[in-house]
Amino acid sequence: MINKKLLIEKAFDAQKFCYTPYSNFNVGAALLGASGKIYQGCNIENAAFTPTNCAERTAFFKAISEGEKDFTAIAVVGNKEGVKAGEGDFCAPCAVCRQVMAEFCNLKNFKIIIAKSTDEYLEYTLEELLPLAFTGKNLD
Description:
This protein is of the alpha+beta class.
């Protein structure tokens, strides 16, 4: 069972560490591993833009670098700096982050929770947000 409120709270906690001097758009993510461990990530910008890393990928890369490669769910929150929880809009993962998720997650079972607050959130499967995903199976 996924504790959605805890996952959303951890995403908001991660959002506090964003480095976004260019966009001032802060995103936090909390990734639930099959082990039960939660990996947090925030977006980290760069003046050259291309080296910028999204919160979701930061959480995935952190988890993978620590040996976890099986995941259950991720919570994502995001808004402009200064916007309070519940006042912004839903922040869905970008296409690059969805592709990274497809590399490591079951399309039908992995849950993506996008939240404005712990009480206001939407939940999707990865397959719903990335239909016709390109995966390693395409290379067989």
